[in-house]
Each structure stands twice: as structure tokens, then as C-alpha cells.
Design a protein that fits this description.
Blueprint (H helix, E strand, L loop, with lengths): L39 E5 L5 E10 L4 E3 L8 E3 L16 E7 L6 H9 L6 E8 L9 E3 L13
Antiparallel strand pairs: 1-2, 1-7, 2-5, 3-4, 5-6
């Protein structure tokens, strides 16, 4: 089965399982939120202040090393040129998120804004390490009526 053929039920998040291949899979770090594309992450940003992030996608970042001199147009993934020390951030999971500019006075106010599609201006496609969203302080919210977009094609 091709990954593009997988169908996941958005409400229950169930569907076919993919065999775990040690080199091809990554696991969320312990203590981080369990979220999916289309979820909203509500995180405190100070006393009585909540920020909202919409999860667009999960990504991995790979640093590239130029092959040759400054005029090089070819690159090699750093993981294939490791000597003895693993670079910081290697094999980390990141999310591409839409970061909403407005802060909210409570979680309830943030949820009302999400459900009423009254979220303010936003910056899309921001890359954030998943470790910035500890489960202990981050609420994962899946809207009753998700808005169409890259995370929720309707």
C-alpha cells in the first residue's frame, strides 16, 4: 500500500497501520502533545494569555553541506557525512504551523474564535520544534467544523 493511499478517519484518528521501519519512522518525544494536521494547539504565553497555533504538517529538517567550493550547486545531507558527533537537532520532529497573531484571555475565548472562524491575522508555514509544545501545558483542540486548507482538504 502506498502512503498516498492511506485513509485516516479524522474524528477517530484510526486507519490502516504502516509497518514500523526503524530507519523510516520517527516517534514523538515523550512529554510532547499528540496532535495531527488540522489540530489547533492552545498554549499559555503568560498570565491569562493564550496563543493559538494551527498544525499544518509534520516535518524533519536536514542540513545540507555544499560539495565543492563557493560556486557549488550540489549538496549532501549532513547525516551522510557524520564523523563522530551528531549535530544539534538531528532527527527532531518539527511542525509547520500557522501562528495566529492575536492572544486570547482564556482557552474558552480561543476556542470560540476557532469555532466562529474569527481568528485574526496569522503567519503561515512557521517551523516549530514539537518540543515547544509540552503536553503538560498545551491543549490540543480539533474543531467541530474544520476550515478547508492544506491541513484539511475538503
Amino acid at each position: 500500500m502506498l502512503l498516498s493511499e492511506l485513509s485516516i478517519d479524522a474524528a477517530t484518528r484510526t486507519g490502516p497501520t504502516v509497518a514500523r521501519m526503524s530507519n523510516a519512522t520517527r516517534q514523538l518525544p515523550a512529554g510532547t502533545v499528540n496532535c495531527r494536521s488540522g489540530d489547533y494547539l492552545l498554549k499559555p504565553a503568560g498570565e491569562g494569555v493564550w496563543k493559538v497555533f494551527e498544525v499544518e504538517a509534520f516535518v524533519a529538517i536536514s542540513r545540507l553541506l555544499p560539495i565543492g567550493d563557493r560556486a557549488a550547486t550540489e549538496f549532501l545531507e549532513e547525516r551522510h557525512a557524520l564523523d563522530s558527533e551528531r549535530p544539534m537537532g538531528m532527527d527532531e520532529i518539527y511542525i509547520l504551523a500557522t501562528v495566529f497573531m492575536e492572544s486570547f484571555g482564556s482557552q474558552d475565548a480561543a476556542v470560540r474564535a476557532i469555532e466562529s472562524a474569527q481568528l485574526p491575522s496569522a503567519i503561515p508555514h512557521v517551523c516549530v520544534n514539537i518540543r515547544k509544545f509540552p503536553a503538560a501545558v498545551t491543549t490540543v483542540y480539533y474543531p467541530k467544523n474544520p476550515r478547508p486548507g492544506p491541513a484539511n482538504p475538503l
